[in-house]
Amino acid sequence: MSDFERPVLRPRRLRTTPAMRELVAETTLRPSQLVLPLFVREGASEPKPISSMPGVVQHTRDTLLKAVTEAAEAGIRGVMLFGIPEVKDPLGSGGLDPDGILNVAIRDVIAEVGDAVVVMADLCLDEFTDHGHCGVLTPDGQVDNDATLEAYAAMGVAQAEAGVHLVAPSGMMDGQVAVIRAALDSAGHTDTGILAYGAKYASAFYGPFREAVDSSLQGDRRTYQQDSRNALEGVREALLDVEQGADMVMVKPALAYLDVLRQVRDAVDVPVAAYNISGEYAMVEAAAANGWIDREPAILETLTAIRRAGADVILTYWATEAAGLLR
Ligand code: PBG
């Protein structure tokens, strides 16, 4: 090679040593940016593994507290609670009942860790309905938006009375954030925040979650969750949520929607969360179990990519473990 052919610009210089790479790293990933989603099952006497999510279980009330404490000790600053009731009904009554499993679990967790961790709860009916939809149904089987809003308002107030810090409406009903905000305020819970699932897409990657909450859903959620072909619509949904009083917005799923995550991050002026969902977890776990990918680097690369795309906060089933890897 003659001299003039040699490159003058050499980006590799900034990759020469670990210290150099650390120095110029653009993206940070810290335990405090992670939220651990947890499932708690009513009446359970021992934790029950979820086969499609190796390493994740339906907790008992006791083991839930252990998991929360362990997460807090690892530096995790948020947990997202999901309840699985013993009995499901068409109205999802267990979600509104102050003695329902989710509200009981919120009280337990607050009593255990107080304000050390931000306690969040799924505000949605699908874990509690026998038909598995996120809302109540009309006589001909459609999800009834406005009737569902009334249920969400009551559910939000019940969660706030139990002490939750952030309610997380995930049902994609129109107007849900405004109705929940008004209900919280009129019940005196002005400090209870709303983490709104702003852009939430109908996704095949929720598969393992159905097992996690014993869902009996027939059909799909395409009349309320978004169409995966639409990114502008995701931005619009997030903006509507902010307008209605959302304190934070979420994009979900994460990996197949990193472009939407970036667009939402650029469009709103509140913190943005992304949910690294059950199917995304299962893909990595399954490939790693087969020896096809190197598990720990794959986990960290996944979470880093979600941060790089614009997430301030990441919900991930790996939260506690990832916090350990980041130490
Ligand atoms: C609805 C809800 C779902 C998830 C979180 N909240 C399921 C759905 O919308 O179908 C999925 C989370 C995951 O897959 O990890 N309550």
UniProtKB/TrEMBL annotation:
Any single GO BP term: protoporphyrinogen IX biosynthetic process
Highest taxon listed in the record's lineage: Bacteria
PROSITE patterns (UniProt xref): D_ALA_DEHYDRATASE (PS00169)
Pfam families reported for this sequence: ALAD
Residues the entry annotates as binding 5-aminolevulinate 2: 278, 317
SMART domains the record matches: ALAD
Chain positions recorded as Mg(2+) binding sites: 237
Reactions accelerated catalytically: 2 5-aminolevulinate = porphobilinogen + 2 H2O + H(+)
Keywords attached to this entry: Heme biosynthesis, Lyase, Magnesium, Metal-binding, Porphyrin biosynthesis
EC number(s) from the headed UniProt entry: 4.2.1.24
Subunit text: Homooctamer.
Similarity comment: family membership: Belongs to the ALAD family.
Function, as annotated: Catalyzes an early step in the biosynthesis of tetrapyrroles. Binds two molecules of 5-aminolevulinate per subunit, each at a distinct site, and catalyzes their condensation to form porphobilinogen.
Name by which UniProt lists this protein: Delta-aminolevulinic acid dehydratase
Organism whose genome encodes this protein: Nocardioides humilatus
Lineage of origin: Bacteria, Bacillati, Actinomycetota, Actinomycetes, Propionibacteriales
